[in-house]
Amino acid sequence: MFGIDRIGGAPADENLGHAAGPELLPNVTGVILAGGQSRRMGSNKAVLPYGGVPLIERIYRQMSELFVETVVVTNTPELYPFLPCPKVKDQYPGMGPLAGIHAALNYSRTRYIAVVACDMPWISTRLIRELAGFRDGSDVILPEGDHGLEPLHAIYSKECIPFIEESLNADRRRIVSFFDRVKVQVMTLDQTSQIEPSLRAFRNINTVQEYQQSLENQVIGSTR
Ligand SMILES: Nc1nc2c(ncn2[C@@H]2O[C@H](COP(=O)(O)OP(=O)(O)OP(=O)(O)O)[C@@H](O)[C@H]2O)c(=O)[nH]1
Description:
Layout: E1 3-6, H1 9-15, E2 28-33, E3 49-50, E4 53-54, H2 55-64, E5 70-73, E6 87-88, H3 97-107, E7 112-117, H4 125-132, E8 140-145, E9 148-149, E10 153-157, H5 161-169, E11 183-187, H6 189-195, H7 208-215
Parallel strand pairs: 1-11, 2-5, 2-7, 5-6, 8-11
Antiparallel strand pairs: 3-4, 7-10, 8-9, 8-10
Helix pairs in contact: 3-5
């Protein structure tokens, strides 16, 4: 069955909150997208200082708590010598985050990847763990936040590759553009809020003002 379903009914709701734990998640590769232009920021968002380290390093450390391997998708790997991980290049350069997801899926040695952006200071390892718990039988598992679907805090399977290519070849760059071609499970806003009540996991920083606000822990823009 293709199309978008909510994460299913009572049994899944009962399962929510049971995925916490220190273990690494098997069969999932962590992915940090860092191939953007940072035009609104005016300088590379990924290396902005955050809590004493570059923002991307903060995110990398959190992802490394979850996955045996975390990779960064970037066309400028030389900017990240401090990250001890593989750097993967886009095969559709300049086409946005969907191209980054595509490159990561092609690279990945696991069937599933967990994708976050390099400009999200408060990713939720707990939420990623929960989302990954629902991966079997689904091609995309993503949460709904207070601004709608959050495809940059989500799980994708290799089954998505041909459909992403179809989209990119037709210059359809929105991440959701292929969702009608695969099996998508959405963690509803209610379910997401149970795990991540503040929803700040989805906040990202696009501008200098948002960066400054985020340092003061204020509410900032959505990732989409
Ligand atoms: N691999 C890859 N990642 C990208 C690409 N475009 C954006 N991203 C990443 O996707 C996430 C969201 O990016 P945006 O904030 O929408 O775009 P941006 O280019 O970084 O910033 P702006 O130039 O201000 O729009 C960030 O982690 C980006 O690094 C791309 O073409 N390839």
